[in-house]
From TrEMBL, chain B:
SUPFAM superfamilies: Cytochrome c. It comes from Mesobaculum littorinae. It holds the Pfam family Cytochrome_CBB3. Its cofactor is heme c. It comes from the Bacteria. This is Cytochrome c domain-containing protein. GO terms for molecular function: electron transfer activity; heme binding; iron ion binding. Keywords: Electron transport, Heme, Iron, Metal-binding, Respiratory chain, Signal, Transport. The lineage of its organism: Bacteria, Pseudomonadati, Pseudomonadota, Alphaproteobacteria, Rhodobacterales. Residues 65-144 form the Cytochrome c domain.
Length: 527, 174
């Protein structure tokens, strides 16, 4: 350890603190600045009954429908699916889902159990989503993101045995603090640290790393109070606590388990996070209560044309029931159809916008929900909610944030891939195969999987018929034409998560929509 | 091997109407899984009804796409959207059928798409080497109802690569 250079040390700290993750998060979010959601939108001025056709009844589309009707517009919404919400979606007991290719799954979960295949947690700073939940009477509850008693796991670390995050995190912090304290104490950082700051820095490191008064991270009841005891303090006879052994520094660093410490710390994942009670589609249903009367379901848009006098959209019955081609017309259009689909629809949008539509690729993601006969993670392992991270393709196991201590079956998220080759690999599998792999990998962390498994459902987003992917991807907004894509194109404006700096989050969809209808309204009122 | 593979893939497709996932068993063969993860050769194992051989022996992570067999690559990558028999799929939007597809007559077109992506299709050039792209292209030109003279070369693939490739594993959200 002593030969570790300061440069390597700092590099290591940066990695553990998630420098690259934070970089992406912070640039994408415009740093930790306030949201550009400033409360309920105000669309003043009389649109004189102008009609807006909204394409898509996801959160972007329904936000537009709700606010435009409130502002005095005539609104019509066309939706491909049989229900509202788009990617704001929950699969629960008895639901049927048929993915592209024809594989049909009937969710075999027990009554009340569910999985959110798409968005599944709400950050505190997603002000628009939080405010719509309040306004639409969508009850929310805490989502447990961080659980130090959950595991961190890598196949090549600790002989593949999962480690409690709190143990590894405490050891990592202790060893790094000790190193840094040594460097400060020995004057190696005198150029960076003033004499005045030195003592305070050392004191802070003793506190941060649970160091003793010699600035050492050692086995003690103090450190056990952070990482867990060998035997917990009890009551009465033989109740004295026994301190736990520490992992040595090399082991902690070489394990690379510190890779999993940063997600919780990123702004998007700060505790507390939230979820709608009973499933993410609570938000969809909240919107639907307000604008459901405006929506035509099972409407597959086949063309979108505009000229100087208005917008004309043709659509067919998406269920294949026939009925021929229908036509809807309006003065303006808010189009929230994902570009993965819009690119295949006959339209006469401007070359600039068309170029972006036809060049945006879509991200994939896989989620597998697994129902087990009992909550063994709670009963056997004292894990109440939160997330275990692993280097296996499933990447994580998220335990339910509700129903603690209840008897009977419970559902956990048994796999969540995000982009990359593992996502493609799962996408090329059938649902049963994805479930099987989620079980194979998960049982390396929880051997109870084998006996307790009851039912599963697997969603691969490239195979979701109504979006063909999970979210639109910008490699370089400037080069790809973000500004062009968000412009009002004569009478049509596009909106959705893909037209935001918060891609794949519902907040992005709503903020994009609010911005789009604000500009559209301004054009209607002021020309 | 090729016949067996195709058969199991089609069996997999035929069994995809599985609805009672509760019937799934976690009879994970740890040795198989372990070997698959390290990319080691695994012998033929009896197939469970709902698991194709190619899925059963899948490897992940850095070992995910190391095969240079066109069929194995197609069935574990392209088939996810274009389907095991190349028939494509139709929803709100569509995935084009590669079956009996005239655009596959000359390798330049599929090579460009595989390497760089197109429309909603992501680029695969970042994790497939030249030999693998040639293998997939050759498979496409000679299977799935296509009967073209394979004309893909590693040089064609190299030439179609972008100067500054994007990393498909970059996470902007997780």
């Amino acid at each position: 350890m002593t030969d570790m250079t300061r440069r390597r040390l700092l590099g290591m700290i940066g990695t553990a603190a998630g420098s690259s993750a934070m970089y992406y998060a912070m640039t994408a979010m415009g740093h930790a600045a306030p949201s550009n959601y400033t409360g309920p939108i105000k669309l003043d001025g009389d649109p004189k009954g102008a009609k807006v056709l909204v394409l898509g009844a996801g959160l972007a589309g329904m936000t537009a429908a709700l606010e435009l009707r409130a502002a005095g517009y005539t609104v019509e919404v066309l939706e491909y699916r049989e229900k509202a919400g788009g990617r704001c979606w929950t699969l629960r007991s008895g639901d049927e889902y048929t993915e592209l290719g024809g594989a049909k799954q009937t969710v075999g979960f027990s009554d009340g159990n569910y999985i959110n295949p798409g968005p599944w947690r709400l950050p505190h700073h997603h002000y628009a989503v939080m405010d719509y939940c309040r306004r639409l009477n969508v009850p929310i509850e805490p989502f447990i993101q961080t659980n130090y008693n959950a595991y961190v796991h890598r196949g090549d670390a600790f002989d593949g045995k999962p480690q409690r995050m709190g143990e590894i995190l405490t050891d990592y912090r202790g060893h790094v603090s000790e190193l840094l304290a040594k460097a400060v104490d020995q004057g190696k950082l005198d150029q960076e640290v003033t004499a005045d700051d030195k003592e305070l820095l050392l004191e802070s490191l003793r506190r941060f790393g649970v160091l003793d008064d010699q600035n050492a991270y050692v086995k003690s009841l103090d450190t056990s109070g952070y990482r867990g005891y060998d035997k917990q303090p009890g009551g009465g006879v033989d109740a004295a606590p026994v301190a736990s052994d520490l992992n040595d520094p090399q082991q902690v660093i070489q394990s690379q388990l510190w890779r999993y410490f940063s997600t919780h710390e990123s702004l998007d994942h700060w505790a507390p996070m939230f979820q709608p009670v009973g499933g993410m589609d609570g938000i969809a249903k909240g919107f639907e209560r307000e604008v459901g009367d405006l929506i035509t379901y099972n409407a597959k848009v086949t063309s979108l044309k505009q000229d100087d006098s208005g917008v004309t959209v043709t659509w067919e019955d998406a269920t294949g029931a026939g009925g021929g081609t229908n036509t809807s017309t309006a003065d303006y259009c808010v189009c929230t159809i994902p570009f993965s689909v819009l690119g295949q629809i006959d339209h006469n949008l401007s070359p600039g916008l068309s170029g972006v539509i036809s060049s945006m690729f879509y991200n994939g993601s896989t989620k597998v929900g697994l129902e087990f006969k009992r909550r063994f993670w709670e009963q056997d392992e004292q894990i109440y909610g939160g997330i275990t991270y692993t280097d296996q393709a499933i990447s994580q196991i998220s335990y339910p944030s509700t129903g603690y201590q209840s008897d009977g079956p419970a559902v956990l998220l048994g796999a969540y891939t995000w982009r990359g080759t593992d996502t493609f690999k799962f996408n090329a599998m059938q649902p049963a195969e994805r479930i099987k792999w989620a079980l194979r990998m998960g049982e390396k962390i929880h051997p109870q999987y084998r006996d307790e498994f009851k039912a599963g459902v697997a969603v691969s987003w490239h195979k979701v018929p109504w979006v063909l992917g999970c979210s639109g991807v910008w490699e370089d907004r400037e080069a790809q034409g973000y500004e062009e894509a968000i412009k009002i194109d004569n009478r049509v404006v596009c909106a959705g998560e893909h037209l935001s700096y918060i891609p794949a989050w519902q907040e992005g969809a709503i903020l994009s929509s609010l911005d789009a209808i604000s500009r559209l309204h301004d054009k209607v009122i002021n020309g | 091997m090729k016949t067996a593979l195709v058969t199991t893939v089609f069996l997999g497709a035929a069994s995809m109407a599985f609805a009672q996932s509760a019937e799934l068993e976690t009879d994970a063969d740890t040795d198989t899984a372990q070997a698959a993860e390290t990319g080691a050769e695994v012998g033929m194992k009896p197939q469970v009804a709902e698991m194709s051989e190619i899925a059963d022996q899948a490897s992940f992570g850095a070992a995910g796409y190391t095969s240079t067999d066109g069929e194995a690559l197609y069935q574990s990558l392209c088939a996810g959207c274009h389907m095991p028999d190349g028939s494509g799929a139709v929803g709100a939007g569509a995935y084009p059928a590669l079956r009996e597809n005239q655009n596959l007559e000359f390798a330049a077109y599929p090579i460009t798409l595989i390497v760089n992506g197109q429309s909603a299709m992501p680029a695969f050039g970042e994790f497939l080497n030249d030999e693998q792209v040639v293998a997939i292209t050759t498979y496409l030109q000679t299977h799935l109802g296509n009967d073209y003279t394979p004309d893909a070369t590693a040089e064609d693939v190299a030439l179609s690569r972008p100067v500054d490739p994007a990393d498909p594993n970059t996470a902007e959200h997780e």
